[in-house]
């Protein structure tokens, strides 16, 4: 396969950046998208230019580090698929592929396609946990949880924190990310105790990071590699409203 | 401070509350105006009586204030929310195909809302303003003859078209707005969420078809 | 002779006796004691969170952009714990025995028993943190069975157990970050260890976004940086996984133990081309229901579904009837390699075997299989474009886990006082082969339940030390050393990228220090690696500058791998026996099984750095088996 790439290049956070065009001649359709970028970088290195910086690590769809806009879509043309699990067979021969970093004010671009997603860490630090110190835990089977409940909690907990939900959202809202954690915790009896303080502080932090409002377009669910349901956002709203009503 | 600090979620709550109240108003408005479909004689009499009663009633007056407040609230919050959302992404995508994974009308609620708002201004100027401050002739019962006004306004074809187009905009606005409001208020149960969604579709189509039918009916059949 | 300082007394009392007599630090003094934790996987996050909760001043470092991306996240199958919820005869001793035997009697009894003993607590802790382990309909925790054991003791969260356990630990860590007891430094990579008067006193890190070097002092340093299986280039590890932190510590005096013992995982996706960057793992749990086979005929060209039952060779079931498809990893991998080398491999490169679910789907129904492994089948289809409900998966062995690592004593302290190594970064507990679902366990218990006690025992004597001064000459020297190293890398200006050398090194190691090893092969490998290293320092090209630069990061890691690779070969060459994952072709039974030599090699090899180009120096820690008798490890 032969492809033309238009790639966002940006030296550092201050640099305004621009799109650059590259042509790759010999691409195997079984390559993963990131392996195609490896090939591009090898070519750039041979030319003596600076390779394209991009985020990646596990390359099996679970670490959540990779994440770029490919042809105007978060993680590329497939739904519910991380960039690393996208393969070149999803593209046509001679296709032009536009590659950009995830864009959101809360995710500043560091270099080329690398973005800073530490805003998510701060949202978790504000309350995305169950307060149990090492050693305090009771016997595991002393808290029976129904299988459907635990499976529902798992569905929410499966979030890999890649940020595609923010990137695809027209408002750059982090509602899906934040709500997945809130929902995971509140579905479990262990997590219910702190439900009110958790939802309030996590929503506060989410806002402080500069994410936008959720307007329920549901694009996030379509792009989420873990297919996290938008109904978790509704649950977050419910928990938030409940917490506001019951506030002392 | 804390108590009054507005969060994204509370702003959305206000959007949902005001929006749902406006939905409720639409139902009442539609039901009242269905009288236009009565036989000519009866429609004329009853419609004018109905508007007379409405304009004199204190409860209706209070509700109308709430209604105006809701419209203003809905618009003001929409503006605040849009501004915040714009700030949340200052650099745009060079090439944007994100639309492939969501409904166009869910992404363009502001645009649809603007169309509806412009329509509202025209609509209020044509009827509410004229009824309130204009010199309407009186009908046989001595009520202001709003019916004649309606007939004359809807006799212009371009005007009817404008109405229909705006009702289509309203329909799409409701299509997204109704279920979105329910979700914002926290309806997370999959079964009921689906139910509300289906209800929302039926609701939007019925309301908007009903409203659009009026000028069409008046124009072509009266 | 190295002394692991294992407490005397009966096996089951060693740990409780240790805990009862270890020194403690008064809560009021803990804030004054600083601890550096490098790595935020299960071991790193859990120790940082636990120490933070206790009140120590902790600094946590990771090279990823957030702690949640550490590679523990990718573990799929599960975590072992001897809860005996299945009433099938599990116990601490049974688990201890399975692990010792699984490791081919090359691990310490005291350590392994302690791991089994703490395993039950880990499940309690994880459940309390909100980890959604699979449950039965009554609401109680469920278990599955895993390779190498005959009880069901594996707890799981679908095929994402590692992710869920890591998120539990990550959330505990972030809670402490929020509380201010832990300072987090993401995108900071450790470059050197600072040793003052023989004690670990801090590290030099490079801010990977700005390129600046920073000094951080502490009363104790914990390395929880995972394994170095990525040295093979093609592996199941993440692209960023590296051995640099432990290697730089090694060069500062910490011994490396059993470095050649690498687990080659039997169920990974095969390589499909030269461009390939990693081999994706398919969880071992698939072997519960999948049957492994190759065609009986060489050069088979038919599609797998066209090959009739009697022309299939279910070689694991044939060779190991008792454990069959659930044989331990080293055995399953070697058996696959044996078939592939004999010419029975399948797929375009003839480098794979089939993993077939047709029988399980027929017996249990597709829905049940989908419920158990749905995400794995989805992942398989995403990567290969093949629907594994309809035709068998193609799998092949891939480098996966480092049983070797920094030598640590019973307290998980390396040969440098004050330097601790946790999780996969140390060598302890797994012997010459790790059992499935024991890695999450080891990383977690090291961090949650072991190091908090043993580190307190060390830190108790550090209260009088006072704050560590980073203006000390040793810090300046270490920083200068790092600067010189980076300058040297940038200054070569050759014409080959770091990946080239990494791939070449990987080929040498897969070939000569992988599933099977021989004296001649290893000697050749040492020569080849030395040549490759020389070529690296002459022909490397690092484009870009000193600030954010992935090529510079890679170059530093590959430079370390080139030294570590040679050490692995020295270790494999020295160990003139076969044991666990270490298979010397000179030592096998007529049926091709590994032959141990307990008389001469019942010891842990601990290597001391002697300098580049110099042969490393071997130290031995003899293994004493007081409670079990090493037997021939048979899964037949």
TrEMBL record, chain A:
InterPro entries: 2Fe-2S_ferredoxin-like_sf, 2Fe2S_fd_BS, 4Fe4S_Fe-S-bd, Beta-grasp_dom_sf, Helical_ferredxn, SDH/FRD_Iron-Sulfur, Succ_DH/fum_Rdtase_N. Pfam families: Fer2_3, Fer4_8. Residues 150-179 form the 4Fe-4S ferredoxin-type domain. GO terms for molecular function: 2 iron, 2 sulfur cluster binding; electron transfer activity. It comes from the Bacteria. GO terms for biological process: aerobic respiration; respiratory electron transport chain. Its cofactor is [2Fe-2S] cluster; [3Fe-4S] cluster. Belongs to the succinate dehydrogenase/fumarate reductase iron-sulfur protein family. This is Succinate dehydrogenase / fumarate reductase iron-sulfur subunit.
From TrEMBL, chain B:
Keywords: Membrane, Transmembrane, Transmembrane helix. GO terms for cellular component: membrane. The chain crosses the membrane at residues 14-38, 58-83, 104-124, 157-175, 196-218. It comes from Chitinophaga arvensicola. This is Succinate dehydrogenase / fumarate reductase cytochrome b subunit.
Automatic annotation (TrEMBL), chain C:
Residues 35-440 form the FAD-dependent oxidoreductase 2 FAD-binding domain. It catalyses: a quinone + succinate = fumarate + a quinol. It is found in: Cell membrane. One of its GO terms (molecular function) is electron transfer activity. The active site is at residue 329. It is a peripheral membrane protein. GO terms for biological process: anaerobic respiration. Its cofactor is FAD. SUPFAM superfamilies: FAD/NAD(P)-binding domain, Succinate dehydrogenase/fumarate reductase flavoprotein C-terminal domain, Succinate dehydrogenase/fumarate reductase flavoprotein, catalytic domain. GO terms for cellular component: plasma membrane. Its EC number is 1.3.5.1. Keywords: Cell membrane, Electron transport, FAD, Flavoprotein, Membrane, Oxidoreductase, Transport. Residues 502-635 form the Fumarate reductase/succinate dehydrogenase flavoprotein-like C-terminal domain. Transmembrane segments: none annotated. Belongs to the FAD-dependent oxidoreductase 2 family. FRD/SDH subfamily. NCBIfam families: PRK07573.1 (NF005749), sdhA_Bsu (TIGR01811). This is succinate dehydrogenase. It comes from Chitinophaga arvensicola. The lineage of its organism: Bacteria, Pseudomonadati, Bacteroidota, Chitinophagia, Chitinophagales.
């Amino acid at each position: 396969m032969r492809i033309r790439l238009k790639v966002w290049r940006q030296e550092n956070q201050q640099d305004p950046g621009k799109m650059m065009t590259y042509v790759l001649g010999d691409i195997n359709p079984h390559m993963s998208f990131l392996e195609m970028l490896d090939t591009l970088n090898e070519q750039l290195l041979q030319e003596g230019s600076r390779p394209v910086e991009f985020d990646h690590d596990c390359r099996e769809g679970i670490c959540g580090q990779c994440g770029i806009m490919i042809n105007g879509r978060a993680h590329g043309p497939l739904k519910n698929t991380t960039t690393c699990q996208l393969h070149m067979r999803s593209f046509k021969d001679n296709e032009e592929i536009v590659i950009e970093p995830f864009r959101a004010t809360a995710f500043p671009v560091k270099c080329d396609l690398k973005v800073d997603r530490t805003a998510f860490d701060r949202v978790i630090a504000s309350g995305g946990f169950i307060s149990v110190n090492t050693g305090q835990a009771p016997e595991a089977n002393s808290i029976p949880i129904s299988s459907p409940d635990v499976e529902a909690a798992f569905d929410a907990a499966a979030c890999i924190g890649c940020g595609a939900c923010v990137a695809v959202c027209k408002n750059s809202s982090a509602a899906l990310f934040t709500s997945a954690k809130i929902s995971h915790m509140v579905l479990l009896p262990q997590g219910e105790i702190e439900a009110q303080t958790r939802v309030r502080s996590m929503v506060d932090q989410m806002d402080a990071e500069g994410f936008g409002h959720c307007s329920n377009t549901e694009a996030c669910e379509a792009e989420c590699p873990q297919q996290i349901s938008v109904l978790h956002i509704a649950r977050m709203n419910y928990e938030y409203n409940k917490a506001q009503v019951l506030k002392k | 401070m804390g108590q009054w600090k507005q969060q994204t979620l509370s702003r959305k709550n206000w959007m949902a509350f005001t929006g749902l109240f406006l939905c409720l108003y639409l139902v009442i408005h539609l039901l009242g105006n269905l009288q236009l479909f009565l036989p000519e004689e009866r429609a004329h009499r009853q419609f004018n009586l109905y508007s007379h009663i409405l304009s004199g009633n204190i409860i209706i007056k209070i509700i109308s204030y709430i209604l105006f407040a809701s419209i203003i609230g809905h618009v003001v919050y929409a503006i605040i929310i849009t501004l915040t959302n714009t700030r949340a992404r200052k650099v745009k995508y060079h090439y944007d195909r994100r639309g492939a994974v969501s409904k166009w009308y869910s992404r363009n609620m502001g645009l649809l809302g603007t169309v509806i708002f412009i329509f509202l201004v025209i609509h209020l100027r044509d009827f509410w303003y004229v009824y309130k401050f204009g010199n309407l002739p009186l009908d046989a019962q001595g009520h202001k003859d709003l019916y004649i006004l309606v007939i004359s306004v809807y006799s212009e074809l371009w005007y009817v078209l404008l109405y229909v187009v705006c009702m289509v905009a309203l329909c799409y606005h409701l299509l997204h707005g109704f279920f979105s409001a329910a979700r914002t208020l926290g309806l997370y149960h999959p079964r009921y969420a689906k139910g509300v969604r289906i209800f929302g579709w039926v609701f939007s189509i019925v309301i908007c078809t009903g409203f659009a039918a009026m000028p069409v009916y008046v124009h072509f059949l009266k | 002779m190295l002394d692991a300082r294992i407490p005397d007394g009966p096996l089951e009392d060693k740990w409780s006796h240790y805990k009862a007599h270890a020194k403690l630090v008064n809560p009021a003094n803990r804030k004054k004691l600083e601890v550096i934790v490098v790595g935020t996987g299960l071991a790193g996050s859990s120790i940082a969170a636990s120490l933070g909760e206790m009140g120590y001043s902790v600094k946590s470092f990771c090279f990823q952009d957030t702690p949640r991306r550490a590679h523990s996240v990718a573990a799929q199958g599960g975590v072992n714990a001897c809860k005996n919820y299945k009433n099938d005869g599990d116990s601490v001793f049974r688990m201890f025995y399975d692990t010792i035997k699984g490791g081919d009697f090359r691990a310490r009894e005291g350590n392994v028993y302690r791991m089994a003993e703490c395993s039950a607590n880990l499940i309690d802790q994880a459940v309390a943190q909100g980890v959604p382990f699979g449950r039965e309909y009554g609401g109680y925790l469920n278990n599955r069975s895993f390779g190498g054991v005959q009880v069901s003791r594996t707890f799981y969260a679908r095929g994402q157990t590692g992710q869920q356990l890591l998120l539990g630990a990550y959330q505990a860590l972030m809670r402490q970050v929020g509380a201010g007891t832990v300072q987090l430094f993401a995108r900071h990579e450790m470059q050197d260890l600072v040793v003052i008067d023989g004690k670990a006193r801090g590290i030099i890190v490079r801010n990977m976004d700005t390129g600046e070097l920073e000094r951080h002092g502490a009363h104790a340093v914990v390395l929880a940086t995972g394994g170095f299986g990525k040295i093979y280039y093609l592996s199941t590890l993440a692209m960023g996984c590296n051995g640099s932190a432990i290697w730089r510590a090694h060069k500062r005096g910490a011994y490396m133990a059993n470095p050649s013992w690498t687990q080659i995982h039997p169920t990974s996706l095969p390589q499909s081309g030269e461009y390939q960057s990693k081999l994706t793992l398919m969880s071992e749990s698939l072997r519960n229901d999948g049957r492994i086979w190759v065609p009986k005929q060489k050069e088979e060209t038919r599609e797998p579904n066209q090959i009739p039952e009697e022309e299939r060779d279910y070689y694991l079931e044939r060779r190991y009837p008792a454990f069959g498809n659930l044989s331990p990893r080293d055995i399953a991998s070697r058996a696959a390699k044996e078939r592939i080398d004999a010419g029975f491999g399948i797929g375009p490169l003839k480098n794979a075997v089939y993993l077939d679910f047709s029988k399980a789907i027929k017996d249990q129904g597709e829905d049940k299989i989908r419920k158990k492994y749905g995400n794995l089948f989805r992942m398989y289809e995403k990567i290969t474009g093949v629907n594994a409900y309809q035709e068998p998966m193609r799998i092949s062995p891939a480098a996966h886990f480092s049983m070797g690592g920094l030598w640590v004593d019973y307290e998980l302290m390396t040969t440098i006082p004050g330097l601790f190594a946790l999780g996969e970064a140390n060598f302890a507990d797994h012997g010459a082969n790790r059992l499935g679902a024991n890695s999450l366990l080891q990383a977690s218990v090291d961090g949650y339940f072991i190091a908090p006690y043993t580190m307190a025992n060390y830190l108790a004597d550090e209260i009088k030390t006072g704050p560590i001064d980073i203006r000390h000459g040793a810090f300046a020297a270490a920083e200068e050393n790092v600067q010189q190293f980076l300058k040297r890398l940038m200054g070569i200006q050759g014409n080959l990228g770091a990946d080239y050398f990494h791939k070449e090194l990987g080929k040498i190691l897969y070939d000569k220090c992988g599933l099977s090893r021989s004296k001649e092969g290893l000697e050749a490998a040492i020569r080849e690696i030395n040549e490759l290293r020389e070529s690296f320092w002459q022909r490397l090209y690092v484009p870009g500058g000193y600030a954010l630069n992935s090529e510079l990061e890679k170059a530093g890691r590959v430079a370390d791998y080139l030294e570590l690779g040679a050490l692995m070969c020295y270790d494999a060459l020295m160990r003139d026996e076969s044991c666990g994952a270490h298979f010397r072709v000179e030592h096998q039974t007529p049926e091709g099984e590994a032959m141990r030599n307990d008389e001469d090699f019942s010891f842990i090899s601990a290597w001391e750095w002697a300098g580049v180009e110099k042969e490393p120096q071997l130290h031995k820690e003899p293994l004493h088996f007081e409670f079990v008798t090493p037997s021939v490890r048979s899964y037949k």
